[in-house]
């Protein structure tokens, strides 16, 4: 009979606990944008999560840097917006990373926008239309109803990739969903004064937010999607919106405020700088992001 010392037993037990713990089996997740890193963190807080961009970067325009390639090469899965938002850089990362797990059509490739019904889907697209997304507007993270659907799909995908912790992901989803539904109800009660308001905005970054809150974007600071504002376009906007009951001119953290400030100066309509994703204005999670955006919009109403 082989005797095992107490010290050895303790070591074996510690090793077994380590093997069975979520930390030891944590997923390695590559998120294209901070909102998806935050959502992944709600469902798998023990995971190693890396966000390729920050709140102050344009998610359309990212360089396929060696550091990003290395991160994607080690990832078990990625979580990105999709619907062509990252078309200028993610395919290059996938090719150079040479990671079978995160190729398109593999379980490790998760596109959030493809999990929900998208707005502004186009049947045909030409270059003359500017930087448009034929698959629909990809900025789906600013509609809490769609975010819940995406969370459910993401928890399911995590369970498929890591079945040993499937119950863990489902439990985290259940807790997140309960908090999210209650917060959504609270936000909808708070935002009733915003219904029917009109704004001018930079790009269609807030398309889903405005749809949810029944806000109308009556004009865009961009002459065409993806093109910076021009003096002739802004002059045309000036004539278009004069005399209209505009709540304000909206732009996000990663956009140049000069055009919004010029239009505000000429019309008297206030500028409304809105947080766009997690990390902007000190927001640390999705709940804080939504709360901050709503506070910024309601402040504009009160000021008016």
How many E-type strands? 8
User: CATH topology of the largest domain, which one?
Assistant: Rossmann fold
For the residues shown, what is the average pLDDT? 90
Q: Into which percent range does the helicity of residues fall? A: 40-55%
* Poorly predicted ranges: 1-24
Q: What is the CATH superfamily classification of the largest domain?
A: Nitrogenase molybdenum iron protein domain
In N-to-C order, the SSE pattern is HEHEHEHEHHEHEHEHEH
Spatial separation of the terminal alpha carbons? 85 Å
Rg computed from alpha carbons, rounded to a whole number of angstroms: 22 Å
What is the 3D form? globular
Q: What class do helices, strands and sheet pairing give? A: alpha/beta
Assess the beta-strand content as a share of residues.
5-15%
Number of domains: 2
How do the strands line up in the largest sheet?
2-1-3-4
The profile of the biggest β sheet is: 4 strands, parallel
The CATH architecture classification of the largest domain is 3-Layer(aba) Sandwich
Specify the number of helices. 10
């Amino acid at each position: 009979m082989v005797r095992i010392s107490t010290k050895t037993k303790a070591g074996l037990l510690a090793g077994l606990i380590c093997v069975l713990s979520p930390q030891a089996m944590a997923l390695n997740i590559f998120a294209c944008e901070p909102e998806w890193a935050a959502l992944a963190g709600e469902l798998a807080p023990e995971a190693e999560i890396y966000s390729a961009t920050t709140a102050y970067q344009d998610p359309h325009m990212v360089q396929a840097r060696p550091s990003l390639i290395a991160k994607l090469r080690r990832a078990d899965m990625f979580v990105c917006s999709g619907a062509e938002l990252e078309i200028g850089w993610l395919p290059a990362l996938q090719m150079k990373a040479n990671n079978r797990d995160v190729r398109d059509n593999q379980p490790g490739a998760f596109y959030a926008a493809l999990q929900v019904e998208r707005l502004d889907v186009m049947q045909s697209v030409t270059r003359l239309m500017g930087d448009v997304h034929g698959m629909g507007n990809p900025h789906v993270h600013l509609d809490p109803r769609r975010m819940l659907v995406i969370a459910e799909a993401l928890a399911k995908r995590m369970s498929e990739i890591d079945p040993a912790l499937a119950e863990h992901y489902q439990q985290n989803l259940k807790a997140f969903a309960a908090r999210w539904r209650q917060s959504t109800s609270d936000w909808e009660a708070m935002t009733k004064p915003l219904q029917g308001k009109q704004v001018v905005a930079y790009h269609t970054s807030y398309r889903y937010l405005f749809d949810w809150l029944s806000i109308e974007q009556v004009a865009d600071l961009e002459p065409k999607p993806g093109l910076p504002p021009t003096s002739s376009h802004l002059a045309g906007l000036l004539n278009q919106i004069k005399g209209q009951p505009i709540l304000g001119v909206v732009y996000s953290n990663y956009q140049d405020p000069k055009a919004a400030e010029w239009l505000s100066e000429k019309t008297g309509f206030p500028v409304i700088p809105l947080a766009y994703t997690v990390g902007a204005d000190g927001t640390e999670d999705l709940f804080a992001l939504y709360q901050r955006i709503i506070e910024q919009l309601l402040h504009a109403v009160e000021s008016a």
